[in-house]
Amino acid sequence: QKEFGLPKGHAYTLYKKHGTALRGLIAEGHLSRDCAASMDGFLDKVHDLPIHELLSPDDELRSMVSRIHPSVRKFVFTASVSHHARRCLEALGIADLIEGIVDVKDCRFET
């Protein structure tokens, strides 16, 4: 929030008003879909989290995904970025079960 000169809590206000903070930042002119450096900087910063402190291997989830028929291709669709989703999948212990990730960049930042 500091980087955009927004008051504390405004990201949550944007989230409530627009559905996601990213959509709100774009809609209100704080970020531009056409400025890759600004978008990447924002997305890198908000996803710089200690994932392995927040998530741990989930044997029940692994078992559930493993029971899906092998002929069914498995993808993750996320409003996040692929490197963040990949880190989460690795922390959960299921990255090897997922064929690919469709992320916010693939959707031209539509969240």
Give descriptors for this structure.
single chain, 111 residues, mainly alpha, two-stranded parallel sheet, 45% helix, elongated
Describe the structure.
This protein has 111 residues and is mainly α. It is built from six helices and two strands, in the order αααααβαβ. The chain has helices at residues 10-18, 21-27, 36-46, 51-54, 59-66, 82-92; strands at residues 75-77, 100-102. It has a two-stranded parallel ribbon. The longest helix has 11 residues, at 36-46.
For the largest beta-sheet, the strand count, sense and barrel status come to: 2 strands, parallel
Query: pLDDT under 50 segments (min length 5)?
Result: none
Please tally the β strands and state the result. 2
SSE string: HHHHHEHE
Q: Enumerate the strands of the largest sheet in spatial order, edge to edge or round the barrel.
A: 1-2
